Amino acid sequence: MSSRRTTRSRQSSSSRITDEQINDLVSKLQALLPEAGIRSNNSMPAARVLQDTCNHIRSLHQEVDDLSERLSELLATTDTTSAQAAIIRSLLM
Amino acid sequence: MNRKNSNKSRNPNKPTLAFYFLRALACINKKTSMASYNQRSGTIKRAAYASMALAAGPKRAWSRAVLCRVLWWGSSRLHGFPTRRRPRAFFHRRVRVADPKLREPSKADVLRRLVPGAKAMDLSRLLEETAHYIQYLRAQVLLMQNVVGSVSD
Questions:
Q1: Which residue has the higher pLDDT, B95 or B48?
Q2: I want to staple B63 with a disulfide (CB 3.0 to 4.6 A). Which of A75, B34, B40, B53 is the partner?
Q3: CA nearest neighbour of A6 among B127, B63, B49
Q4: CB distance A65 to B142 below 8 Å
Q5: Contacts of B131 in chain A (CB under 8 A)
Q6: In the Cβ-directed half-sphere of B34, how many Cα atoms lie within 13 Å?
Q7: How far lies A8's CA from each of A11, B8, B103, in Å?
Q8: How far apart, in whole angstroms, are the C-alpha atoms of residue B101 and residue A86?
Q9: Distance, CA of B137 to CA of B51 (rounded, Å)
Q10: pLDDT of amino acid A63
Q11: Are B135 and B12 in contact (CB under 8 A)?
Q12: Which of A12, A29, A68 is the closest to B130 by Cβ?
């Protein structure tokens, strides 16, 4: 398992990180992924969870980039006061 | 009790997130000197990460790392420093071609590169930071989708 590989290289004297703790954290991470509801409740291998997490983070970064571009376009073209009013209205409701 | 506390601190405070982001947007909107579209979209992106990090607070390594980067970027542009030597190409992500000679990095190392401030963390801390980071990223994306939706209506 990947956790064994990393704990081999990091012999921390302060706190022993148990495999159980790692498994617990990995399962929490798995629960955060978008496919959590689709897959069965059985735990996936840690490497798979990490891979999916990396992909998910990359896709979120890409979304932020795309949304920033769209916002930049929209702010250039729309009237400021009406845009602000629309935003505040949508957030309050 | 520890778990409850960690859950509370983990869930992003949406009104706070919205407040910081909208305030930044209002500032960006006022600055009409920002003529170029690319410049403005880059500024909005940095504002998004900065507001995310501000809402998360200084207790998390990723939020501190993001704020450092944003402040570094802002101050270097303000003083006219050349921005060639960036600490990391976080805001301008390039596609890196993998060198076949190098050993393929482990999944944990790839994750360390993606999560800001996570370079020298052990695995358990890395996983915790990642979970926190993902929650805030997701909340930020939802907020931005809401804003785009309401402005484009």
A1: B48
A2: B53
A3: B127
A4: no
A5: 25, 28-29, 32
A6: 18
A7: 6, 33, 18
A8: 54
A9: 11
A10: 93
A11: yes
A12: A29
Q: Tokens for B102? A: 């190098």
Taking each helix axis from N to C end, the angle separating A19-32 and A2-9, rounded to the nearest 10 degrees, works out to: 130
List the single residue in A with minimal CA-CA distance to B113: A54
Tokens describing residue B137? 């990223």
CB burial of A7-32 (b: ≥16 within 10 Å; e: otherwise) equals beeeeeeeeebeeeebeebbeebbeb
Please count the CA atoms within 13 angstroms of the CA of B138 that sit on its side-chain side: 14
- State how far the Cα of B137 lies from the Cα of B12, in Å rounded to an integer: 9
**Can you tell me the distance from the alpha carbon of B151 to that of A82, in angstroms, rounded to the nearest whole number?**
8
Q: How far apart are CA B54 and CA B63, in angstroms?
A: 7
Residue closest to A91 by CA, chosen among B145, B109, B133, B123: B145
- d(C-alpha B81, C-alpha A75), whole Å: 28
Q: Average pLDDT, stretch A73-85?
A: 73
CA-nearest of B95, B75, B96, B97 to B86 is B75
**What amino acid occupies position B42?**
G
Give the integer Cα–Cα distance in Å for A55 and A32. Answer: 13
- Cα of A90 vs its chain's centroid, Å: 25
Measure CA B106 to chain center: 23
pLDDT digits (tens, 9 = 90+) for B63-79: 999 888 888 877 766 66
Q: Judged by CB atoms within 8 Å, which residues 72-101 of B form the interface with A?
A: 93
ipTM above 0.90, yes or no: no
Q: Which of B147, B111, B62 is nearest to A73 (CA)?
A: B147
CB pairs under 8 A between A and B: 130
